[in-house]
Design a protein that fits this description.
Length: about 230
Amino acid sequence: MRQGLFDYLSAQTGALTLGDVLLSFLFALILGIVIFVSYRFAFSGSMYSARFNVSLVMLTLVTTLVMCVIGNNIALSLGMVGALSIVRFRTAIKDPRDTAYIFWCIAVGVCCGVSEFLIASVGSVVLFLFLILYGAVKRNDRYLLVVRSSKEGSQEIEKRVTQYFAGKAQVRVINTGTETVEYIYELSDRLLNESTQKNVDGITIVELLQNIDGITAVNMVSQSDEINR
């Protein structure tokens, strides 16, 4: 029984010809370039990494190479799974969309490695169009308004912030000391722009708060999915 199972697994070699291998790598390279272009144009952040984009093409080719080696060999595939299970990848993913691109590369590499070129091509076209459209969507950044003042100016701060944002600004933190107070408001990008445009004098919230007696600091911090600026 064991010998028969061993012979069956060993016989599933699935040898590929040189032409099959070259065709698989050609399709993988073409679709890898499509992924490269998609990432380049869909990326809307402030820290574009050309090296990461090139590594996406390399990942597609490497996955194709692995699939060509495995072929239909079940024993080799099980061994490959065991070997890859000990690898630990600790590269931080700054943008959640980068994970989608990594899986896209792996999927294309798997399809090209088993000569499923139609599935790889159709899937890549659909993903390419979707990610191009998705990349054009404007980010909705969040802002933190940090105001530090003496206790005498706390009521005036609350009054002016409430009037400026029509009561829509959300207070997240109020830090109170013996002589000082700190307010942290969370603002959406849309709320900040609308409130600034509605102001007749064109005064920003930072300029408005700086005129209060007792103010020591007014900071506006932008938060996004990538980095906190």
